[in-house]
Design goal:
The chain has about 170 residues and is of the alpha+beta class. Helices cover about 70% and strands about 10% of the residues. The protein is built from 3 helices and 4 strands; from the N terminus they run ααββαββ. The strands form 2 sheets. The chain has a two-stranded antiparallel ribbon with strand order 1-2. Strands 3-4 form a two-stranded antiparallel ribbon. A hairpin with a 5-residue loop joins β1 and β2. It is elongated, with a radius of gyration of 38 Å. The protein starts with a helix and ends with a strand.
């Protein structure tokens, strides 16, 4: 295989293996499957509730811009200009239900999980920092003890006259 083909395949592999591409693909598949659930909720629950106040089919709600509005059996306007605001209302309700379910079942729990993980990570870093500070304090105490020991021992003032190994003071 030529180097050019290898580099193209390597680039394609790198593109596919990026996390955001895979996340996007999963989101599209789940979104497509979830559309059926939302559509069923709108048709099975929302439309009957709205139907208690009018017709069960929101798509039938309309106003006539230019009267008289007449439609044939297929629902196409034969006369007048109908404004199909029921269709828009149905789409808005479907969007709001989808957004609410996605937020409350996916986004909110994930945000809480990530916040909890961030707090745990911050706590671990704080413990690590305390450990580093305590290690530093222990090292300082050891240094101070060694300095104090050197000062009062045979090499200190009033001792043999040496500041340290091999060094004489006048």
């Amino acid at each position: 295989m030529s180097k050019e083909k290898e580099s193209i395949l390597e680039g394609f592999k790198a593109f596919l293996m990026r996390g955001n591409v895979i996340d996007l693909a999963v989101a599209v598949v789940i979104g497509a499957a979830f559309t059926n659930v939302v559509t069923s909720v709108v048709k099975g629950v929302i439309n009957p509730v709205v139907g208690a106040f009018g017709t069960q089919d929101l798509n039938r709600y309309s106003s006539c811009l230019k009267a008289p509005c007449e439609t044939n059996a297929a629902g196409e306007a034969t006369e007048g200009i109908p404004i199909m605001w029921g269709t828009v209302l149905s789409a808005v309700l479907t969007f709001l239900i989808t957004a609410a379910v996605v937020y409350f079942l996916m986004v909110l729990p994930m945000a809480k999980y990530l916040a909890r993980r961030a707090r745990q990570q911050a706590a671990k870093e704080e413990v690590q920092e305390v450990m580093e500070v305590s290690e530093l304090e222990v090292l300082k105490e050891i240094r101070d003890a060694l300095v104090a020991q050197r000062g009062s021992g045979p090499g200190g003032p009033g001792g043999s006259g040496q500041d340290g190994p091999g060094r004489n003071t006048p």
